[in-house]
From TrEMBL:
The keyword Transport does not apply. This is Aldehyde dehydrogenase. InterPro entries: Ald_DH/histidinol_DH, Ald_DH_C, Ald_DH_CS_CYS, Ald_DH_CS_GLU, Ald_DH_N, Aldehyde_DH_dom, Aldehyde_DH_NAD(P). The active site is at residue 227. It holds the Pfam family Aldedh.
Length: 516
């Protein structure tokens, strides 16, 4: 591996002892209760220190990810560190504005009381980090949690020991450890961490583990944000610019060794198009990763663990579809290398079509119509984390967007929507709960505290609320405080301001009130 800086690999850190975890948790709770994290100046200072800590340790972090699964350092910088750095800058630029109490627009009845929302920190939050993007998926939510004024416990993945050790050193060196601390370790540490009481749990990972995290949090009535996955479908509905379509699909599916939660999990291709699409995919694999993709290819990431390698190899070996690109003949167990593989016409119960693949395998399902493709997703893999559509037909695109429920998506592209911090990122249904990135992160890690200020002078108008009640007084309340409908009992409903205005004027000529 080559980087601009020579990196001496540091020793791996030891797992956090089970006895230490409750002490770390107690420390973070005490810090939050001390109000240390409330001043915006403190929050901004922590984000600034994190920003420069990332820059100062850039080569070490990139090398750590490479050590864990042969991931190209350039890819790690683009997909992980650049996102964290941008997030830091966005928060420093905007946090003061985002954190200001916001007065709400309301009706004249309530205007004098100035209904407002202020953003209060949730408290002590747990962030559980997965292996696939270990830098991005630790740092980006951490930045949002710190900006919102929380204390944070980060549980890092045991599957990426070099990266987790590097991140732990970064956090412990550059941030206030009474506000942010790290837990390292495998299943025993994960269990110990999740059994403690938090004010919010933020989990990124599989739907299976996410369900267990939510169940554990539910016992303590702890709110959760779940960033999960699922089988994200990709519709290919015409042959327009097929070379570029193939390139964008190959990029989305096979970067990071296919270990991306929003990767195109399978293609839904109109019958006949596959005859041109498959050769184009093969060409684009050569363009992006080289004519011969081997375990020594410098631009291609490997599988993160022995267990994941075995699972993915089994998916390919047991498929009932036709392997038209790749396969397992060149698979190498020692380096956990599996080359990009494309499977044509797998049945619905195929090894590649039951669960999220999370590896370098791309099934192609043939469809005869858009409607058939929509039904396929709804019947077999509803609520994916991402949805991609390659088409020039706006009606087709709109139909898919309306009828397939997904967390987010793109038209004529894959994956890169996650890089725009102004766009909320999150799932729906089985693919997750909640969203984050940029301002959405700040709001996710905050409680929207609603409040009003009731002036004493309004008493003359609001005293009607007090008992003893009479129907005469209630009739005054009805006329003054109850809204009158600007729509009839039957027939078309006015949806514009002008339409509602004419309805109200018409009601005056019908005896002073709307005929409902």
């Amino acid at each position: 591996m080559s980087t601009t800086t020579t990196v001496t690999e540091p020793s791996l850190l030891e797992d956090t002892s089970l006895e230490e975890i409750p002490k770390i948790h107690s420390k973070l709770v005490s810090t939050f209760r001390s109000n240390k994290t409330l001043p915006l100046e403190f929050r901004l200072d922590q984000i600034r220190k994190l920003y420069y800590g990332i820059l100062d340790n850039k080569a070490t972090l990139l090398d750590a990810v490479y050590q864990d699964f042969h991931k190209p350092p350039q890819e790690t910088f683009i997909a992980e560190l650049s996102m964290a750095l941008n997030e830091c800058v966005d928060f420093v630029d905007n946090l003061t504005s985002w954190a200001k109490p916001k007065q709400l627009s309301t009706s004249l009845t309530w205007k004098a009381m100035r209904p407002s929302v202020r953003y209060n920190p949730m408290g002590t939050v747990l962030i559980v980090v997965p292996f696939n993007y270990p830098l991005q998926l630790a740092l980006v939510p951490l930045i949002g949690a710190l900006a919102a004024g929380n204390t944070v416990l980060l549980k890092l993945s045991e599957l990426t020991p070099h990266t987790s050790s590097a991140l732990a050193r970064l956090v412990r060196t550059h941030l206030d450890n009474s506000v942010v601390d790290i837990v390292l370790g495998a299943l025993p540490q994960s269990r110990a961490v999740t059994q403690l009481k938090y004010d919010l749990v933020f989990f990124t990972g599989s739907s299976r583990v996410g369900a267990m995290v939510a169940e554990e949090a539910g016992r303590r009535l702890t709110p959760v944000v779940l960033e999960l996955g699922g089988k994200s479908p990709t519709f290919v509905l015409d042959e327009h610019n097929l070379a570029l379509v193939a390139k964008r699909i190959v990029y989305g599916r096979f970067i990071n060794g296919g270990q991306t939660c929003i990767a195109p999990d399978y293609l839904l291709v109109k019958r006949g198009i596959e005859k041109k699409l498959v050769p184009e995919i093969k060409k684009q694999l050569a363009v992006l990763f080289g004519e011969v993709i081997s375990k020594d290819s410098k631009d291609y990431a490997h599988i993160v663990s022995d267990g994941a390698y075995k699972r993915i190899k089994t998916l390919i070996d047991e498929t009932k579809g036709e392997v038209v690109i790749g396969g397992t003949k060149t698979a190498d167990v020692e380096s956990r290398f599996i080359e990009p593989t494309v499977v044509l016409n797998p049945p619905v119960d195929d090894s590649t079509m039951v669960d999220e693949i999370f590896g370098p395998v791309l099934p192609i399902v043939l469809i005869d119509s858009v409607e058939q493709g929509i039904d396929y997703v709804r019947d077999n893999h509803s609520h994916p984390l991402a949805l991609y559509v390659f088409s020039q037909d706006r009606a087709e695109i709109e139909k898919i967007h309306q009828q397939v429920s997904a967390g987010s998506g793109m038209v004529n592209g894959t994956l890169i929507h996650v890089g725009d911090s102004s766009v909320p990122f999150g799932g729906v249904g089985q693919s997750g709960i909640g969203a984050y990135h940029g301002k959405n992160s700040f709001e996710t890690f905050s409680h929207k505290y609603a409040f009003m200020t009731e002036p004493f002078w309004t008493e003359f108008a609001t005293a009607i609320r007090y008992p003893p009640y009479t129907w005469k007084r209630i009739s005054l309340f009805e006329k003054g405080m109850t809204k009158t409908a600007a729509f009839p009992r039957e027939g078309p409903i006015p949806t514009t301001f002008v339409g509602r205005l004419f309805f109200r004027l018409g009601s005056l000529f019908r005896g002073g009130k709307a005929k409902l």
